[in-house]
Amino acid sequence: MKIKASPPRAPTLEDVARAAGLSAMTVSRALNVPQQVRAQTLARVMEAVRATGYIPNALAGGLASRRSRLIAVVVPQINNAMFVDTIQALNDEMVRQGYQMLLCVSGYQAESEAEIVATLLSRRPDGIILTGIHHTPALKKMVLQAALPVVEIWDMTPTPIDMLVGFSHQQVGAEVGDYLIQRGYRKPALLWADDARAAQRRQGLEARLRRQQIAIVAQIAVPLPASMQGGRDAFAALDDAAVDVVVCSSDTIAQGALIEAEARGRRVPQDVAVMGFGDLAFAAAHRPAITTVRIDRQAIGQQAVRALLARLAGDAVPQPVTDIGFEIIQRDSA
């Protein structure tokens, strides 16, 4: 008869106590409130932890102190270079302050974001960082009832759920419109991804162009997630329309548009100019270098964590809304 092997058992607190020759109560105290234990005893406990491979239950300890040392972060994508620098800055600042990031990806669906936040709250994070300001009523109700500090990022509103670090997408669009007007462009086309923040930029751009009686010649939708191939396909869909500038909702789309323009024998910027958004790492190195809008993505992450941890520490946050601004970077493509 074949005897079925028992699955391996995770080391317990009692295993650590036996290895250290101490009581389970003493071991528990050493792990949860080490400042109350003699240094010699603490050293014995930590040696036993290493020997047994025991993993302390951080959640249980956190419940006792009402702190999990976890910050929940929800972003729409992790394969979008636009958010990568912000995510890294969030993580680096959290680690520096003794916290860890619990990262989740929601896509661009508000309902999915609400479901994710419900799950995250069951993990008892100390705070939440959300991307954008467009959330379902159910999500807002959940986070308000949880009474946790919340920071929304990558957007702008005078009435955030709690705190906000970002910039005005509508104002970005308006200033891009001013730039196009000043440069003498009068036949613009848009290659645009359909997400809420990009839509705000488009609205600001269109409103500014209307004031000068400039009409959008063509507008091509780029499917999410935005990609270089999506930019190529969108530029191809213009079908040699009589446009003098192509404005893209991201540098990734702009890069694809530039490649397709070259493939079609269209000179940039002589035949058609191209403008992006984000000032991603490749924008300056591309040939032609991409004219774009620079966002301090690292500052968004750093300031979001600092605001959240200040609130956790009981410190006053005099400015719950932080506008980091933006800058139009003129290069060769437009």
Secondary-structure blueprint:
Blueprint lengths: L12 H8 L3 H9 L6 H14 L5 H8 L4 E6 L5 H16 L3 E6 L4 H12 L5 E5 L5 H10 L3 E4 L9 E4 L2 H14 L5 E6 L2 H16 L6 E5 L5 H10 L7 E4 L2 H13 L9 E3 L16 E3 L2 H16 L8 E3 L3 E3 L5
InterPro entries: HTH_LacI, Lambda_DNA-bd_dom_sf, Peripla_BP/Lac1_sug-bd_dom, Peripla_BP_I
Protein name: GntR family transcriptional regulator
GO molecular function, one term: DNA-binding transcription factor activity
List keywords for this structure.
334 residues; alpha/beta; 434 Repressor (Amino-terminal Domain); Rossmann fold; six-stranded parallel sheet; four-stranded parallel sheet; Peripla_BP_I; transcription cis-regulatory region binding; HTH_LacI; transcription regulation
Describe this protein's structure.
- With 334 residues, the protein is of the alpha/beta class.
- The chain folds into 3 domains: 13-56, 434 Repressor (Amino-terminal Domain), CATH 1.10.260; 69-167 and 297-325, Response regulator (Rossmann fold, 3-Layer(aba) Sandwich), CATH 3.40.50; 169-294, Response regulator (Rossmann fold, 3-Layer(aba) Sandwich), CATH 3.40.50.2300.
- The protein is built from 12 helices and 12 strands.
- The strands form 3 sheets. The protein has a 6-stranded parallel beta sheet with strand order 2-1-3-4-5-11, sandwiched between helices.
- Helix 11 (251-263) links the parallel strand 8 and strand 9 (273-275).
- The longest helix is centred in the N-terminal third of the chain and has 16 residues, at 81-96.
- The protein is elongated and about 85 Å long.
- It starts with 12 loop residues before the first helix and ends in a 5-residue tail after the last strand.
- The model has no long low-confidence stretch (mean pLDDT 90).
